[in-house]
Design brief:
The chain is of the alpha/beta class. It has helices at about 45-50, 120-145, 160-170, 185-195, 225-235, 255-260, 275-290, 290-295, 305-315; strands spanning about 5-10, 15-25, 35-40, 60-65, 65-75, 85-90, 105, 115, 155, 175-180, 195-200, 215-220, 235-245, 265-270, 300-305, 320-325. The protein has 2 domains: about 5-115 and about 300-325, Medium-chain alcohol dehydrogenases, catalytic domain (Quinone Oxidoreductase, Chain A, domain 1); about 130-270, NAD(P)-binding Rossmann-like Domain (Rossmann fold, 3-Layer(aba) Sandwich), CATH 3.40.50.720. It contains 9 helices and 16 strands. Helix 5 (about 225-235) links the parallel strand 12 and strand 13 (about 235-245).
Length: about 325
């Protein structure tokens, strides 16, 4: 019997419980590619799954971790061969299919993307689902025809994972950036990532008017609820906001007024089941466009046995930037 270390989430007395255990390789879920995982990360969604704050996990027991990077060990998919370095984001990983918090993962080859030249597995998980989602958001704004000369862009949850990457990527493209955060102490950090203006999240987090003063033409929102409603209400005519998160809530307590009176668009970002062509494009763009020095400033490295503790911290809002997990 071959075993390896894995972070398994079980449900005991109706409540999720996470622990690092010895896991039997024969119990891995079906797939045509087996990957030796070297790195993963802790996203907000991972925090929800491990703490049980939200019903992210759909099947128990579950190996947590919604993304990973590593090296192919065996493959029945002709697109991959042993030794290929790969990255996986989404596709139900850590929700319905065993995830990246383990030394090994067995998955469908159709879910994998070969890591672009110039990116290491550590880089890939420093970027992770957060950076990949931010890149998808930027690409959506570009497809909508929005460019920096049209006006400023706002990034909500700016000190978080998605927000940090959105700032870096939008600044690289030349945008004037407004960063919304509840952490005033992170002002220097946010300016280092590219923020030109910083506003307190309290300006946006409460109930607002159907239409507000026009302040930005574009934005990336990872917060949802009243924050997203207020961001939309203050978006300039024919602008657009990319919506990719729910840190404040799943609801959208706003009005149709910005959509029918200003032609504002809301662009939904699906990072979980995103088509393969967009995934490859996003990772190729990340390898090309991301400022590695700024990325390094946004990284915290942790050991595998610190994942559960870190999951609680990310839910409490005390983690900034990105967390990279080295798998033993």
């Amino acid at each position: 019997m071959t075993t390896f270390k894995a972070l398994r989430i079980d449900k005991t007395d109706g409540a999720p419980h996470a622990a690092i255990v010895d896991f039997d390789e024969a119990a891995l879920m079906p797939g045509d590619v087996t990957v030796r995982v070297s790195h993963s990360t802790v996203n907000y969604k991972d925090g929800l799954a491990i703490t049980g704050k939200s019903p992210v996990v759909r099947t128990y027991p579950m190996i947590g971790g919604i993304d990973f990077a590593g090296t192919v060990e065996t493959s029945d998919d002709p697109a991959f061969k042993p030794g290929d370095v790969v990255v996986l984001n989404g596709w139900g990983l850590g929700e319905t299919h065993f995830g990246g918090y383990a030394e090994k993962a067995r998955v469908k080859g159709a879910w994998l993307v070969k890591l672009p030249a110039g990116l290491t597995p550590h880089d890939a998980m420093a970027i992770g689902t957060a950076g990949y989602t931010a890149m998808l958001s930027v690409m959506a704004l570009e497809r909508h025809g929005l460019t920096p000369e049209l006006g400023p862009a706002i990034v909500t949850g700016a000190a978080g994972g998605v927000g940090s990457f959105a700032l870096m990527l939008l600044k690289k493209a030349g945008w004037h950036l407004v960063a919304s955060t509840g952490r005033a102490a992170e002002a220097d950090y946010l300016k280092g990532l590219g923020a030109d203006e910083i506003i307190d999240r309290a300006e946006l987090s409460g109930p607002g008017k159907p239409l507000g003063k026009e302040r930005w033409i574009a934005g990336v929102d990872s917060v949802g609820s009243h924050t997203l409603a207020n961001v939309i209400a203050q978006t300039t005519r024919h602008g657009a906001i990319a919506c990719c998160g729910l840190a404040q809530g799943l609801d959208l307590p706003g009005s149709v007024a910005p959509f029918i009176l200003r032609g504002v668009s809301l662009l939904g970002i699906d990072s979980v089941y995103c088509p393969r062509a967009l995934r490859v494009e996003a990772w190729t763009r990340l390898a090309r466009d991301l400022d590695r020095d700024k990325l390094a400033a946004a990284i915290t490295d942790i050991a595998f046995d610190q994942v559960i503790e870190t999951a609680h911290k990310i839910i409490d809002g005390t983690i900034r930037g990105r967390v990279v997990v080295s798998i033993p």
